[in-house]
Each structure stands twice: as structure tokens, then as C-alpha cells.
Specification:
Helix content is 77%, strand content 1%. It has helices at residues 2-7, 13-20, 24-51, 54-74, 78-106, 112-129, 132-141, 143-164, 180-184, 190-197, 201-233, 237-265, 269-288, 294-308, 313-320, 327-355, 370-376, 378-393, and strands spanning 361-362, 365-366.
Length: 403
């Protein structure tokens, strides 16, 4: 549900721009309210996962996310819609870190990267439903009823979480895989734990590198890809949404593949670095290669999406780079870095589009030419390049705790 809400604005850009009279920058800002709250919640979520437990976090998050979705669907003005996105983003922010915390208790540490990849796969299934299926539902029922229905479904999910989830297998009478150091490690205050993780270079190197890899995917597939593809290839919105979904699916499939392969070879850095280079080349081709046929665009997007799956190694790599008892805290920090990419890039791309707008309008919404998009996407490519450099500087963990 968190991934679904993350990219849902991509297929209703025209409806939102017309409903609230938005420019590209304003639309990017509305979508990014999700990310503002999501990023702000990551460190508190990581600490709470360590000190409070994932079950209560997940249940409370689903409750607030459901209410936020209802508010977004019923919003009478832009300010209420922004508040709805803010509530959703802050609430679903607990999901990923709680999942990683649960994985650390329910599975052997050697499977952590693979299980994280499976979590990404399931999440992106939610994002795929925000592509063609969401577009078809919006065409049939309108965007407001669909968002309200999403809120009701999320409230039902909160009840299911409370009934089913348990923080540790021991509460079901099964073996726990919780690291002993995590259970009996040094006692740190919340602020001390947050500050401590940044003493390890891998934390901040991967913090910024992961944002550079994920940011372009969620900026493109999550907001600007549909209008860009509609313009470049003359596609309908459902067709353009399908191509964005293909990119997301490839990313989802790449996660468990890269996680499992890394666990098998016992290394993080070679896969991560190789994936980052492929991602850089892929986006350069997709955006700036003139005359690229639609079929070739889709092929490159699939390869790029698969390579982006290496970001799943961020969580295992960071977890192995700090003391075990800070696993939840560093997972929150790592996820904060991942989401920093779309948080900054979505409104930044919109701002650059507005700067290069030639004044054309269609159905009450601004229309941008191909040159404007090529300028607008420059920050995406620049951040990926920075990510490649940062990964080169990171220390290999060899899939084991190095501190």
C-alpha cells in the first residue's frame, strides 16, 4: 500500500493539475508531500522499531495512512490534499523498516538481503497496481472515489496487521533468529543511537548513493514518466502508465535477484557498483539518445530497472557496517537516504519544467516539450553519477558484521 500511494499521482497528473489549478512545480510539490513526511519519519521509525517493536508501529501506520488517503480523496482544496499526502507518507514510512526488523528476527542473517529483495518485490506489486489498473479504475469511477476506496482498504489492513503480526517467532513458540548482540548489546539513548550510526562511513556513503539510484525511478515512474512518454511516443495515458509499470516490475524482480546473488557470492560492493554504472548508462540512453524506438526504450528500461534492484543491498550492507544493536536505527537511516532521491527530484524536475515552459495548455493543464523534459531530468542523471563515485569509496562487508 505504501508503494501504491507513492506512485499513484503519476497516472492522475492531469486530473490533479486541472482540479487544483497546478503548475508542474506545484504538482511535484503535492506529490512530494508524501516523501517529505516519509523521509522525516525514517530515523524516528528506526529507533521506535528497536525500542517499541514493529507490530504496533505497523498497525498505527496503517490506521493513519487510511485516514490520510480518505482525506486526500475528499480534499476540497490543495491544502487539504497536501495534508492527506503528508499523513499517508508519514504513516507508511514505518512499513519498510518494520519489515526489515521482522526479517532480522524471523530469518537467518544469511538470508537478509534475499528477504529484503522479496519485500521490495511485494512492495512494487503495489506500485504496479498504481499504473494501468489505477488508470482504468480512475477512468471508470473518477480519482476521488478510488482514493477513498484505497483508504478504506488500508484501514482494513490495520486490523489484519494487529491480528496476524508478531514481533518475534518466540511468541509463536518457534525459534528466533534475533542477533544476541542486538538483544544484549550496549544501552544507548535514542539520540545517541541516531548519532552513533553516522560514525561509520558506509552509512552516509550508501545514504546518498541509494537516493541517486531510486530517485530517478520514482521520479519518472511515480510522476513525470506518463506525460513524458505520451509526448515523446504519442501514447495514451494507460499505455504510458504500462511502460512505467514495466520499469517498476523490473526493479521489483531485480531486488531479490541481486539480494540472493550477493548473499551467494558473499560480497556487496561489486554488484552494487556494477548496477550503479548500468543504471547511469540506461538513463542516459532513455532520456538523451535521439530517435530511440519505443521497443528499444522498453528494453533499456527493463535492464535499468533490474540493475536498480541493487539498492536492496543498501540495507544489508548498512546493517553489517554498524553494531548489531543499532540494526533498526541504521535501517531507518538507509531508507531515509533511499527516499531522499524522489523527495528532492520530483519538485526539482517540476521546477525546471516550469522554467522551460513555452506557455502551451491542454485541458486546463500545462504542456511541456521534449527539450524541457531533457533539461528537467538532468538532476536525475547527475545524482546517479555521484552515487557511482560514493559506492567506489564504500568498504566491502563480505556479507558479515564488520563492526
Amino acid at each position: 500500500m505504501g508503494f501504491y500511494q507513492r506512485v499513484a499521482p503519476a497516472v492522475i497528473t492531469q486530473e490533479l493539475m486541472s482540479q487544483f489549478s497546478l503548475s508542474a512545480a506545484a504538482l511535484g510539490n503535492l506529490s512530494a508531500y508524501y516523501f517529505y513526511a516519509y523521509v522525516a519519519m525514517q530515523l524516528p521509525t528506526g529507533v521506535l522499531a528497536d525500542h517499541w517493536g514493529p507490530r504496533r508501529l505497523l498497525c498505527a501506520g496503517a490506521l493513519v495512512a487510511g485516514l490520510g488517503s480518505l482525506l486526500f480523496g475528499l480534499a476540497p482544496s490543495l491544502a487539504w490534499a497536501e495534508l492527506g499526502r503528508l499523513l499517508v507518507g508519514g504513516a507508511v514510512a514505518v512499513a519498510w523498516v518494520a519489515l526489515l526488523k521482522l526479517a532480522g528476527h524471523w530469518f537467518n542473517a544469511r538470508r537478509f538481503a534475499a528477504i529484503s529483495g522479496m519485500g521490495l518485490l511485494v512492495g512494487v506489486i503495489g506500485a504496479v497496481t498504481a499504473g494501468v489498473p489505477l488508470r482504468l479504475m480512475v477512468d471508470a469511477f473518477g480519482w476521488r472515489p478510488v482514493m477513498v476506496a484505497s483508504g478504506v482498504l488500508t484501514l482494513a489492513l490495520a486490523l489484519a496487521i494487529w491480528l496476524v503480526i508478531r514481533d518475534d517467532p518466540g511468541k509463536r513458540g518457534w525459534r528466533s533468529y534475533a542477533p544476541q548482540q542486538a538483544v544484549g548489546g550496549p544501552s544507548h539513548s535514542i539520540l545517541a543511537g541516531v548519532g552513533h550510526i553516522w560514525r561509520y562511513p558506509n552509512t552516509w556513503l550508501l545514504f546518498f548513493a541509494s537516493g541517486g539510484l531510486v530517485g530517478p525511478v520514482l521520479t519518472f515512474a511515480g510522476l513525470w514518466g506518463v506525460p513524458y512518454l505520451s509526448l515523446r511516443y504519442g501514447l495514451g495515458r494507460a499505455e504510458a502508465a504500462f511502460i512505467c509499470s514495466v520499469l517498476m516490475i523490473a526493479w521489483a524482480v531485480g531486488g531479490p535477484i541481486m539480494g540472493g546473488l550477493s548473499d551467494r557470492i558473499g560480497k556487496r560492493k561489486p554488484l552494487y557498483l556494477g548496477g550503479a554504472v548500468v543504471v547511469l548508462l540506461g538513463w542516459l540512453v532513455m532520456i538523451y539518445l535521439p530517435g530511440l524506438p519505443l521497443g528499444a526504450f522498453m528494453a533499456v528500461s527493463i535492464v535499468t530497472g533490474l540493475a536498480t534492484g541493487v539498492i536492496i543491498l543498501t540495507f544489508a550492507w548498512c546493517k553489517e557496517s554498524v553494531p548489531a544493536h543499532l540494526g533498526g536505527t541504521v535501517s531507518g537511516a538507509a531508507n531515509m537516504g533511499v527516499m531522499l532521491g524522489p523527495t528532492l527530484l520530483q519538485p526539482l524536475v517540476g521546477w525546471l519544467l516550469d522554467l522551460n515552459w513555452d506557455g502551451r495548455m491542454a485541458h486546463g493543464a500545462r504542456v511541456y516539450d521534449l527539450g524541457a523534459y531533457q533539461i528537467g531530468f538532468i538532476p536525475m542523471v547527475a545524482w546517479i553519477l555521484l552515487g557511482v563515485v560514493l559506492v567506489i569509496m564504500a568498504r566491502e562487508s563480505h556479507c558479515r558484521q564488520i563492526v
